[in-house]
Amino acid sequence: MPDTTRRWVLARHVEGAPTPEDFRLEETPLGELADGRFLSRVILGSVDPGTRSRLSGGDSYAGAMKIGEGIDGFCVAEVIESNNPNYAVGDLIAAGGGWREHFVSDGRGFIQKITDRRVPLGCWIGILGVPGLTAWFGMNRVAQAKAGETLLVTSAAGPVGATAGQIGKKLGMRVVGIAGGPKKCAWLKDEAGFDAVIDYKAEPDLTAAIKAACPEGVDVLFDNVGNEMVDRVLPLMKLRGRVVVSGQVADYNVEPQDRVGLKNTSVFITHRVRMEGLVVFDDIRQFGAAQAQMADWIADGSLKFAIEEFDGLESAAEAFCGLFRGENFGRRLVRVSQDPAA
Amino acid sequence: MPDTTRRWVLARHVEGAPTPEDFRLEETPLGELADGRFLSRVILGSVDPGTRSRLSGGDSYAGAMKIGEGIDGFCVAEVIESNNPNYAVGDLIAAGGGWREHFVSDGRGFIQKITDRRVPLGCWIGILGVPGLTAWFGMNRVAQAKAGETLLVTSAAGPVGATAGQIGKKLGMRVVGIAGGPKKCAWLKDEAGFDAVIDYKAEPDLTAAIKAACPEGVDVLFDNVGNEMVDRVLPLMKLRGRVVVSGQVADYNVEPQDRVGLKNTSVFITHRVRMEGLVVFDDIRQFGAAQAQMADWIADGSLKFAIEEFDGLESAAEAFCGLFRGENFGRRLVRVSQDPAA
Questions:
Q1: What is the ipTM of this complex?
Q2: Do A245 and B265 touch (CB under 8 A)?
Q3: What is the pTM of this model?
């Protein structure tokens, strides 16, 4: 067992958009493999926009990270040493290991064994992981989306949005996506089967474009962007429309007082709109059923996903920072070591 | 049957806070009492803050009123002539007659016969009418309020807020109200049984006062004020808190672009907050059960209400305008003619 491993830590509290200088790659001791613990090597790690909400200083949010703390992140890993009877050497797991090469776990926290190898390993921290499950429970539990309704998805080429839109199609909805650039838009239309896609970078009047694409209004807004987008769409919501607050990537970098505010709130009364957010771990008991259904859809080719792989743990900070420049296309993963089956 | 009656109409579209000059009292023909119709004389009329949302010009809201249109409003009335087999002379009804002395109805729209005379007639357009039912369905259906939770009610001495708070007490909640002035606050504490009351006119730091009164946070915000109040309370919401958008009295007078915006929306994700509005007529099939329960509570003295009576149809416009200066204490009614039992 190695004495140390490498991990990314917070080098300074982040102001505005994150930059690679906000993070530091360091050697850190692994500690002993006490009874009940096991050691894993990370194969693929993920960078998540939601992590940004914990990187600013101040005491405004209880989950704020301290300088020098290791950055959280989900990973696919292989157990390489074990003093825990539930995890054997060679087991593949999805877990919250962080941006690092190895980690020791006592088996607590979110750890899932990967047994279904029909789908690429990266899916277990993508479309079958937090992003895909956020889409699933956001659409089914929070939005209670129904056939015949109109769904508008923002940041639609991201891993949450693309999955939410395809779940909408499976449910029989009319699905409209908003994304940036012709490549993402073409993929959403041609591969993911969206009914209409709006390229926000090419539209001089985004509101007019949304109205044109949703002539009868919006039943479900599945938003990953933030207040500016929500306030734009609120006046277009249909009676009993639902706004799912899935992510706020445009607001994470801005202090609350400097954010766009929601002003068009009269629709909450006139149109009985409901707005609700989610953190997917509230639905953990239903993960298995959702993953089984989505894995079947991936295996039969009817649920599409995009993965962008960055090479080497060194690339994690840069991969993360690019999320806030709208660069990512699909799930952004960092290849830390090779898949044992490769 | 009289040929004409008097009614209030919209004299001009309202900008900002309404003034009596925005309305005009006029003689209007009553028309013939065709088959299926009946004539009623208004006993008590109501002025409702929600009416304000329809009085501005422009096409931003489908319900906007035209100049010269009669002002809507609920009233208690007595049927005095009838060509409708379902309504007999002498029947007492609660209906949407408007700010007027007589009205002819064909029996369509919301009309409810008043048979339970244990409670004052005015209750049927107050605590047993739209305000009280908004409180009932806002607390039970929308908020799904539960024993042990903390409820914060704004505009708490108004007919909606005072009823919502007392329903909260019946449900076993800790109930905190915000109202303006010592008279309202004393009534809420001593009569309506609120656990704590904040006088916003006397508090230099309203947020600090709310924190002190709700040290563990707020499970249910029942808001009748608008965005500024909601944004102030959002950071204090507990996990899975609910914001009931019941009314927006402070925002009705302000164009959407000039309103305070909700910025503290990150709690929708971090604290899984749900925000939802209501229009009480969605629950019309459950009105009878809610009214029967509340009438019992009124009759046994355990549900309190306050009524402010203005004398004469002439006072309707002034009574309405005062709602936006925070003057009203309880349900504001206009006495148009005498109760037949009086």
A1: 0.91
A2: yes
A3: 0.93
